[in-house]
Amino acid sequence: MTSPLAAGDLDATERLRRAEADQPSSPVARFGADEPLLLDSGAVLAPWQIAYTTDGTLNADRSNAVLVCHALTGDQYVTTPNPVTGKPGWWTRMVGPGRPVDTDRFFVICANVLGGCLGTTGPASTDPQTGAPYALNLPMITIPDMVRAQAMLIDRLGIDTLFCVVGGSMGGMQVLEWAASYGPRVFSAVPIATGARHSSQNIAFHEVGRQAVMADPDWCGGRYLAEGRNPKKGLAVARMAAHITYMSDQSLHSKFGRNLQDRDKVTFGFEADFQIESYLRHQGMSFVDRFDANSYLYVTRAMDYFDIAARHGDVLARAFRHTRTRFCVVSFTSDWLFPTAESKAVVHALSAAGANVSFVEIDSPKGHDAFLLEEPEMFATVRGFLMGAARARGIPGPAEIAEAPALQRAGA
Amino acid sequence: MTSPLAAGDLDATERLRRAEADQPSSPVARFGADEPLLLDSGAVLAPWQIAYTTDGTLNADRSNAVLVCHALTGDQYVTTPNPVTGKPGWWTRMVGPGRPVDTDRFFVICANVLGGCLGTTGPASTDPQTGAPYALNLPMITIPDMVRAQAMLIDRLGIDTLFCVVGGSMGGMQVLEWAASYGPRVFSAVPIATGARHSSQNIAFHEVGRQAVMADPDWCGGRYLAEGRNPKKGLAVARMAAHITYMSDQSLHSKFGRNLQDRDKVTFGFEADFQIESYLRHQGMSFVDRFDANSYLYVTRAMDYFDIAARHGDVLARAFRHTRTRFCVVSFTSDWLFPTAESKAVVHALSAAGANVSFVEIDSPKGHDAFLLEEPEMFATVRGFLMGAARARGIPGPAEIAEAPALQRAGA
């Protein structure tokens, strides 16, 4: 007898992930033909769906909702285990009881992005017109499209104004897009390790990744799901290249240096002699089962297209005119994917727009990925900012909640 | 009637290049079974050959020879057109009549590296044991192996001491290796945009490139030449990723920014909407015909393995003990592949060894590739350094040569 999960050419993780595309383990909001999503490309998506998780309790006046936006290969499982990998939520350092984004105080929402592969409509989702996966028939997605979808989810949840929108990297792009396009609905915003546009170098790295995927014959012109294949090699190469950009020269040096992997001397061959090679190969291989190759194409493209200023006469400040949102912009010294200069450009624009903005550049050797890692100064910054904003918004603190738990929690 | 060059699956450029592997257009020094090349791996290469070009005239006392070492994908055609691409020599800005490396004064030698594909023994060369291309049966090559081969060429040419060894990037690694292992034979050395070891980040980028090549089914486990195939897609992806590292964020931004390619607005698709994408695709595609995929694997590996200090008890200065070579070390501010810190480490080691060393960090936005580009300060630096060294070595200057041309030139 063969386990059903072991059957076929696909491994268990990949089969689990494919099932999540239409029927996620998380809650999902479905929108029918009467609630189409209008995309920047001019295309209209209907029906469509958005998968999300929530944590904490929405208060009586619905003022304590925090939207967490995930990065390129993230998902809605910010505090709960990912059903495909079984790994813990991806930002439990930042979000949870007593964490900077304190789920004892805030109601946290995190949605899988449009174009993703864990339950929100994306290229792996079934196209209702054909009954087969969309693949490249899905219209192109943009960051504003992702945010428009999130706004419809927030409406569905009956929330008018978000207390905060927070995210790093592509998540930060969504934060900025929320503030630019839905300013009155955003009380505070925390864009981390991000920028208001994707740089030429970043587009270049994404293009390398896409070409690596498309060069894999198992990509099948995008139709690999229908054909029972998976462009693992190409996607692994894409992930390896991208992963280098998430770290810093310094962190690679201190973590791996030129250390050899399980050997005393080089093999004079093409094995993974060096620890960094072994590490990268592992990063590539462990990625391909948990992520859809076409989603990788769509979501990288969305980032490439992102350029808030371009939609405002090339003047970024205009995007934030009359904003009343409070901003906390965070960057890291060793992040070369979204260097501090990109954050400063945002801060300057916000200042020019008269916004309430604080900016912290955190000294860290960990590169771009620092926002996902143990960075006490980042946690202290976000915690402090949210405490101040919560006071201004009149959201009771944990002590006040503790004094009157029944009253406060009954409202949700 | 079909042109022979148009026949078959291979295009003309690729066919030309394959022919060059055994029978280069340039001069070639062949070494028989009695002159084996001992490799760092312990393997012995015999017979073997090294292809090279010369420019200028060797003087009577054979004291004016300059060895130019090429970078990863370079070749021996430093001042003359590449027979495969038809393009001009790759460093005519630096080397030629009246140039910093003045061929009116110096006798310039440039050899294709061991493991290369334009006439020096490499994986595309015919294995005399089998009559088929070596492919992965070629023993692994190291930078010291490359230099050992060059030393045997210099012997063959009857030159005892090189007036100068000069090169950038991997060429600079060879310069340092010459100085470390053949110090008494090197009067002066100019390592540019390089380091005494390959960093973790650089190994990482090389590993991505190799995985991209090996992921291409046309690579055929390395046997593509015998099977009439070519892993073009994989090699193109490798080149694209590498090419990003040769430029700087700043140069990409000023050269391409987010400019669109031949269109007014994005296509909402995966075409090369952005100029940077079009440029990278072109870089990838134009590379694959002129370079052998297995050579790319071997030569990147040689760079990864390079670590002079490791052979000297992890103390770089020991490698240059008692050196009498004059050094001119050059780096570029925006080079993030071989950042100035790597050059400084070399300079510190040389200083600790009591060497005569000058160091110039050149302010340039052009990134690593600056050494191949129009960089007046680099030219002035190298020119000035070589003039001083030539005086010390007693090599007549152009004016002196002009006064007594018959005498000086008769000696060659």
Automatic annotation (TrEMBL), chains A, B:
<dbReference type="InterPro" id="IPR008220">
    <property type="entry name" value="HAT_MetX-like"/>
</dbReference>
<dbReference type="GO" id="GO:0009092">
    <property type="term" value="P:homoserine metabolic process"/>
</dbReference>
<feature type="active site">
    <location>
        <position position="368"/>
    </location>
</feature>
<feature type="active site" description="Nucleophile">
    <location>
        <position position="169"/>
    </location>
</feature>
<keyword id="KW-0028">Amino-acid biosynthesis</keyword>
<keyword id="KW-0486">Methionine biosynthesis</keyword>
<comment type="function">
    <text>Transfers an acetyl group from acetyl-CoA to L-homoserine, forming acetyl-L-homoserine.</text>
</comment>
<dbReference type="GO" id="GO:0009086">
    <property type="term" value="P:methionine biosynthetic process"/>
</dbReference>
<dbReference type="InterPro" id="IPR000073">
    <property type="entry name" value="AB_hydrolase_1"/>
</dbReference>
<feature type="active site">
    <location>
        <position position="335"/>
    </location>
</feature>
<dbReference type="Pfam" id="PF00561">
    <property type="entry name" value="Abhydrolase_1"/>
</dbReference>
<comment type="pathway">
    <text>Amino-acid biosynthesis; L-methionine biosynthesis via de novo pathway; O-acetyl-L-homoserine from L-homoserine: step 1/1.</text>
</comment>
<keyword id="KW-0808">Transferase</keyword>
<comment type="similarity">
    <text>Belongs to the AB hydrolase superfamily. MetX family.</text>
</comment>
<feature type="binding site">
    <location>
        <position position="369"/>
    </location>
    <ligand>
        <name>substrate</name>
    </ligand>
</feature>
<comment type="subunit">
    <text>Homodimer.</text>
</comment>
<dbReference type="GO" id="GO:0004414">
    <property type="term" value="F:homoserine O-acetyltransferase activity"/>
</dbReference>
<feature type="binding site">
    <location>
        <position position="239"/>
    </location>
    <ligand>
        <name>substrate</name>
    </ligand>
</feature>
<feature type="domain" description="AB hydrolase-1">
    <location>
        <begin position="64"/>
        <end position="374"/>
    </location>
</feature>
<dbReference type="InterPro" id="IPR029058">
    <property type="entry name" value="AB_hydrolase_fold"/>
</dbReference>
<keyword id="KW-0963">Cytoplasm</keyword>
<dbReference type="GO" id="GO:0005737">
    <property type="term" value="C:cytoplasm"/>
</dbReference>
<protein>
    <recommendedName>
        <fullName>Homoserine O-acetyltransferase</fullName>
        <ecNumber>2.3.1.31</ecNumber>
    </recommendedName>
</protein>
<keyword id="KW-0012">Acyltransferase</keyword>
